[in-house]
Design brief:
Elements: H1 5-10, H2 21-33, E1 35-40, E2 43-48, H3 52-76
Antiparallel strand pairs: 1-2
Length: 85
């Protein structure tokens, strides 16, 4: 999923959100290591493709084990019927 900077900056942050410094460091390191550039209508389009294990850590931290696991399955988008499990 690609989100615009405007969307990211306008997304509300829950007041009880805790910061995991190790998770933040891993995400920041991944911004350089996992940068992917694709051409879209003749223009370069940059995306960051983080490792699925890192995304799972992020989902679990933000949404807890149940919702985090569901979100992880959605982002795989290879077998949506798993959501019925």
């Amino acid at each position: 999923m690609t989100l615009s900077l405007d969307t990211l900056l306008s997304t509300p942050i829950p007041p009880d959100l805790t910061v995991d410094p190790d998770l933040v460091a891993a995400l920041q390191a991944g911004e350089q290591d996992n940068l992917v550039v694709k051409m879209n209508a003749g223009k370069p389009n940059q995306n960051i493709k983080h490792d699925p294990a890192l995304l799972n850590r992020l989902n679990m931290h933000l949404f807890g084990p149940v919702r985090g696991a569901e979100l992880g399955r959605l982002s795989q988008n290879s077998d949506l019927p798993l959501l019925d499990d």
